Amino acid sequence: MAMQINNQENYNVGIYARLSRDDERVGESVSIENQKELLGRYAREQGWNIFDYYCDDGVSGTTFDRPEFNRLVQDATDKKINLVLCKDLSRLGRDYIEAGRYTDFVFPSLGCRFIALNDGVDTLQKNNEMLVIIKNVMNDLYARDTSSKIKAVKQSTFKSGKFVGCYAPLGYKKSEADKHILEIDPITAPVVRQIFDLRLQGNSFRKIATQLNAEGVPAPRTFYYMATDRENIRSKSPYWNDTTVKTILRNEVYLGHMVQNKTGTVSYKNHKQITKPQSEWIKVENTHEPLISQDVWDAVQRMDNHPGRGRTGKSGMIALFGGILRCMDCGSSLRYMRDYRKTTSGKEPEFKSYVCNRYAIGGKDACSTHYINQKALIAVVLTDIRSKAILAQKNREALKERILAMKKSASAERTSMLKTELTAIDKRLAGLEKLIQAAYEDKVMGRIPEVVCINLLNKYEAERAEKLECKKELSAKLAASEESEKSVDDWLDMIQDYAQLEELDRATLVRLIQKIEIGEKREVDGHVERDINIYYNFVGFVEL
């Protein structure tokens, strides 16, 4: 039995008013107070009882999940009201499907009359269904059009390099003269620089967060509320975590570039935040003063795949060469060794060394010790860095040609092998296409059953996907091997600044060196020798 809309004169009225941020631009005519006054006067003129006012202020009409609207529907369900009164259909909502569902189904099924005063819509009357449909569609199109215009304005602002956001990134503050311009914040900028320095030393994201928390450094959101002298109403965790640290280390804003349009909504109706693909990001370079140099940025990004991330020891610190040393014979990493015994003076001895990790675990049957003292290794590395820095300063072109010749000789065989593998993959992919086509033809001609055809196709598709992924990896390796000259230039620009290097710290070590291979000691003509190969970032092993 169909529910009948109440056709009585004594109504308990729920007056609904809504105002979105976009509607605020229109002015007083759609204000909450104006809607309440207009609708209240109309209800009193009709002699109806006003049960309550339901007002959603600052809520978009493209969503129907609104606090006061939900309360209104609940009161209608509980039979507390039997008439919903609003100024026009756009106040009900700007999604024509949902708006139509409420006017055509929800409210009538609850025995609740609905009136949109200015649009002349009254569900008690049966001659305005087409008007309701047209009005709802027009309101929906208005919301779509408004969303498109707002998006276009934002895109234009992004492309001009202006900052758009509620909060400036940590380390910066909005300019008082123009909120779209970022200025370095002298209070928080040192924190950002500290984070980059800690990463250069090989610390993990979690380790950096732990250290910041131990030092009592406020989290980014806490800094914001401290600067504005306001209480943190969001009550988020006041502590650092690895995700926050990683986000800062990935943000090109610290290079002086503006990268925006990273996030958006599903649609103008669905306001769920989503992360956009990198191809849609909008980047404008040199829009403000950088906090870190390009050299530091590049070194930090290389840390993701750098072996020098290392592990913390008993002291909570990473050894100077932790994660960087490799056994020349077995390829295992070298383990940090330290004498933790106290001397008679109470001081810890400065005895630090490294041994092959495979030997430390399995003994001499696994590998030999490859023992090396840290002080001796520091002297070797410092000498190598300084000598190459001096050559880069005095005879750059000759050094560049020598390195390129070495790289070409070393990579010629590898490049040939990569090209051979790529050719074989392309040939196999072409063969798979023919096999897939033949399987389809055999199925159509009735030569093979459908089950056999499906099994063959699944097998061929799986192999094709595997070959395509392999081709992608090989192509990337081939492209990397062809960028030798730029890599050498980058290395020469970097190394030439270290001709006077006196002390070796971990940040410098990680910035310059990828790995160091340690050979075993051997006796030659009555004296002891060993091979130590230093592989630099960008260029690898440079033999002079």
Tell me what you see in this structure.
The chain is an alpha+beta fold. It is built from 16 helices and 20 strands. A five-stranded mixed sheet has the order 2-1-3-4-5, sandwiched between helices. 27% of the residues are buried.
SSE layout:
Elements: E1 12-19, H1 32-45, E2 49-57, H2 67-77, E3 83-86, H3 89-92, H4 96-109, E4 113-116, E5 121-122, H5 129-159, E6 172-174, E7 182-184, H6 189-200, H7 205-214, H8 220-228, H9 242-249, E8 258-260, E9 263-265, E10 273-275, E11 282-284, H10 294-302, E12 325-327, E13 334-338, E14 352-356, H11 357-362, E15 372-373, H12 374-394, H13 396-444, H14 450-481, H15 484-495, H16 506-512, E16 513-518, E17 522-524, E18 527-529, E19 532-536, E20 540-541
Parallel strand pairs: 1-2, 1-3, 3-4, 12-16
Antiparallel strand pairs: 4-5, 6-7, 8-11, 9-10, 13-14, 14-15, 16-19, 17-18, 19-20
